[in-house]
Amino acid sequence: MDKKLLTIDVSHGTTHDGPGMRTTVFVKGCPLHCRWCQNPESIHVRNEVWWDASSCIGCLSCAAACTNDAIRPLPGRIHIEREKCRSCGACVEACPAAAMLWEGQEYDLESLLREVLRDRTFYDQFGGGVTCSGGEPLLHAEFVEAFFSRLQEEKISTALDTCGCVPWENLECVLPYTNYLLYDMKIFDSALHRKFTGQPNEKILNNLICAASYMRSADHPIKLWIRTPLIYGATATVDNIRRIGSFLRENAKDVLERWEMPAFNGVCVSKYEKLEQKWDYDGMGAMTRQQIAPLRKAAEEFISKEKVLVSGMIREE
Amino acid sequence: MSEVQLSFIPKFEQSERIRVLEARNQELGTNGMRQFDDYGDHRCWLNIGPFPKMDELPSTKQGYRMSSEQWGEDYRFMIENMEPHIYPCETIVGEVYWEIGLLRPCGTTGWKQAPNADEIGKLMDEALELGGFPNAYGHTCPDVEILLKQGFDGILERIRSSLKLYTDLDNKRRASFLRGLEHVCLGCIRYIEKYAELAEQLAREPGESDEKERFRRIAKCCRNIAHKAPADYYEAVQTVHFAILFDRCTGHGNGYGRLDQYLIDFYRAGIKDGTLTREAAREMIAEMYMKLRGQYFSFAGRLEDGSDATNEMSWVALEAYDLIGDYNNLGVMWHPDIDRDYYDYACDVLARHGESIPVLINWDLMYESELRSGIPASEAWKVVYSGCQWYCIPGQEWCGHDTSEIDMVKPMMRALKRAAEGGADDFESLYAMYEEEFHRTMRAYQAAEAAIDRVRGESQPEMFTSLIAHGPIERGLDITAPRGVDYQYSSLNILGIPNVADSFTAIRELVYEKKMFTIREVYEACMNDWADNEIMRQRFLNQPKYGNGLSEPDEMFVRVCNSTQEIAEGYYNQRGGQPMRPSLFALMSHVEKRAQIGATPDGRHAGEALAHGINPQVGCSKRGLVPLATSAASVDMRKFQGGSIQVDIQPKFFDGKEDRFSYIRDFSIAFFRQGGQQINLHIMDLSKLQDAIDHPEKPEYRNLVVRVTGYCARFITLSRDYQEDFVARVNHANMN
Q1: Taking the alpha carbons of B417, B418, B422, B427 in that order, is the dihedral positive or negative?
Q2: Which domain holds residue A175?
């Protein structure tokens, strides 16, 4: 088992990743490269340094400390030459203002447990628990398995937020310790899926069928929440929603508790700026009610109304 | 209602009468008639000009004597000369026009009249130099129920009997105090009688019959309660109002206890015999809330047998606030067995009004804290949240709550200075120096407080408070005098613990672990306010901070709290040798004293505000409310005399959350179960607050009430410093 888990954040008091109030562990590294990714820093497994403009005092201690001359001061900003950066961390150590940051932080099992157990009374009171999200937590399935099993011993509810694009064994070993399975179904057409995420989706669909079957005979209840983020021009088409709906009705209707459609939001644009990457969705605003309505209607053709939930920011017009 | 708060949907329809009263109250609150000071409209009195009969004041005529007897004479003269006014529509009457502190030297400066004032002054200066400030006055919670049960005649009889005893036994000191107390009691009686006379006169004058009926009711009520215990609910509410009014004439406010417990029998009797409705009961309480500024009443908690104390009066008292939504300082005392509907309602009120009313308090913790201080269970169950962050057994405690203070930055900086001069080769040596320096502060504090204690009962007595307390009459001693009441440990506000803890965390890491700096460099950088050392300051500023749910800084915080408590508890006061008891709170000095407090190794600049109580330094809480709460709850609050977290959030915080009310309820309960003590919660729109600073004249900001620290005030009446401190606070908690 990996001794350490590389995370991009352990976020306390979250209310969007499963029921109640939760602590969400965002794992670094993802097999998909969704163009709209909300956590771009979670995609690569490699731990990279990034620069936070709001903390920087412009002292250039980082450039002086750099072991491979990868840091360039540009007017008003610091530029990191990615091809040169060896991720040695010298600049992070040197920066007095915490403006040079590791994207990821490593946790061993005990320290991660200690951190999430502090919030126990909040989980109890809000009917929440701990969520593993990402990135893709099942790239570290053994760690997650051990982590969840310890949480179950502590009677803390667990939620696994996965894109499903992993070997079935990775999912299978975690399910026995999972209370909520938050499973992404983004695009039903495999070619389009590959276009937008870099991977085809056969494995994802197949894993869902296996998971549903597992849940029917599991000795503890697992609640399935399907998540389809609504992204302009990619997932948010009536045809795509219909096809996912049809698949769900056929394969998972009996075990499905909720089909959640988080509406697009653009708040992550600042993360792309920090990473000096361009984001295809820069400048796009929240969806309108009129845009949402036909999608919801399409979903409700296949899955009963009370299970379909559109979440997130929605504009009035 | 101001736009700044939540869209406030009143749960109850206001009657025309309440609308008139509220309009007048808001007018008084903003036109300068209610006296303002730096703390906003914290004071309760109406400014009708200076006391007109200063020449005839007993102490003017006789010459000032440092004597509780003369204090009583002056007090009596003052309140007998407060002419009664009955304002339109009101049924609860009585206002404060002057405080005794305006007429004779007492309050914070009373000891300056003592024959040994020079000696006391010297001890005070020494204590201040070392970071200790024993305030000459303090807060407590009298027992209003004594008056409700005995009436003024009953109390007067006890005074006279005790006076006779001590006169016969030739105890001149005690007899003199009791003569003073007799004056106070007689003055109060006369004040109420004058209201009865005015109302009788108004009832005789031509006018509408409704009005005449109102005057007749007031007359009948005041006739009775000037002497006797109240006969019904209305008279009881008026009695409570008079008690608070007389108490506040002493010069400051106190807590006034468990209103729901001491009014419930009157309420039930009125409902039973058909003379009272819930609506009328609610309106009377609302009227009382509007009369004086900021009454501290608390509801729920437990009874002596441990059962939930919530009763119908708990509802009525909170509904009265809900009805008017005005300035107040109410508290709801949660415990695991509290009536769920009632606690839901309390959180609903808080969510709808957004003004930190009621404050939510963990009752079991207060109770255990009282037990831990040696108060027997038979008395400790009476504990009540009484003001800011502190609590009290009504009528049995005088501990100088809320006002005396220890500035922890001073002993820390002295320790740093010593270490810079040599001798602290590791962190533990530095910490030992810090503890030694804190001992020095405590010794100086103890000496100064003891000197004040020796003259307190005569120089700045709290004689009306003594009138409704358990002990002073029978013992012939003021409540503030040693052994005036049973429980008199010293309550100390502790300023700057998060700053000290964060400073030590940073020093341990950067000086002793990483050896990036020497302790001398740190000390000198702080002395020079980090001049030319911004890179170094950033290094210290960006070390892990308390308030983020992180083990290391939180453990340091707990360590500093505990060593403060353990050391302080080893010092005893002059009031029957009771221990010092730290409170993790600072009234306003984190802002007021900032100019005098130099830079600190947590990266703070000289002159910046310090952390408030157990709240993290502004800007240092970066991981959201839950880590803030778990950090604050990491210290065992039973060892302290209170400490609240201040949760100031913007409405958009609730986007995507199910609803505000249940979030507040669940968050507070989880915090309490974790070991948290108290939550003051605001929901305020930051941009509107900023606008209120720039445009205080806009009508929508007139009634914008905020919880400054332990008390509420109208935002526009606060000084700019406090307004800005407040805005910075709201800003920092805008996250999950």
Answers
A1: negative
A2: 4-44+106-315
* Beta-carbon separation of B673 and A13 below 8 A: no
C-beta separation of B727 from B706 below 8 A: no
Averaged pLDDT of chain B: 90
Co-location of A171 and A201 in the same domain: yes
Single pTM value for the model: 0.93
Neighbouring-strand partners of residue B530: none
DSSP class of residue B487 equals B
Burial bucket for residue B222 (CB in 10 Å: 0-12, 13-18, 19+): buried
- Of the ranges B41-55, B307-321, B698-712, which is most confident? B307-321
A297/A185 same-domain check: yes
Domain membership flag for residue B47:
no
Asked if the Cβ–Cβ distance from B666 to A312 is below 8 Å, we say no
For the stretch B356-375, pLDDT in tens is: 899 999 999 999 999 999 99
Closest Cβ opposite residue A57 in set B534, B549, B671: B534
Amino acid at residue number B118: D
Q: Return the closest-CA partner of residue A2 out of A145, A207, A195, A156.
A: A145
Q: How confident is the model at residue B2 (pLDDT cuts 50, 70, 90)?
A: very low
**Are A57 and B535 in contact (CB < 8 Å)?**
yes
pLDDT of residue A113: 97
Residue B624 contacts A where some CB pair is shorter than 8 Å: yes
Distance CA B317, CA B51 (A): 34
Assess B671–A contact: CB distance below 8 Å, yes or no: yes
Distance of CA B345 to the CA centre of its chain: 24
Are A126 and A16 in the same domain?
A: yes
Instruction: Tell whether A279 and A170 lie within a shared domain.
Output: yes
A21/B666 Cβ within 8 A: yes
pLDDT tens readout for residues A105-142? 999 999 999 999 999 999 999 999 999 998 899 999 99
Q: How far apart are CA B10 and CA A312, in angstroms?
A: 29
Is B152 part of a structural domain of the chain?
yes
Band (B5; pLDDT cuts 50, 70, 90): very low
Q: Does B312 map to a domain?
A: yes
pLDDT for B3 equals 38
Cα pseudo-dihedral B726, B732, B733, B736, rounded to 10: 160
**Integer Cα distance of B138 and B161 in angstroms:** 29
- Cβ distance A96 to B625 less than 8 Å, yes or no, reads no
Number of structural domains found in chain A: 2
What's the domain count of chain B? 1
Q: Say which CATH number the domain at A96 has.
A: 3.30.70.20
The ipTM (two decimal places) reads 0.90
Interface test with B, best of A93, A125, A315 (most B CBs within 10 A): A125
Give the gap in angstroms from C-alpha B543 to the nearest C-alpha of chain A: 9
Confidence class of residue A44 from pLDDT cuts 50, 70 and 90? confident
In a domain, B45, yes or no: no
Q: What pLDDT score was predicted for residue B68?
A: 94
- CATH code of the domain in which B76 resides: 3.20.70.20
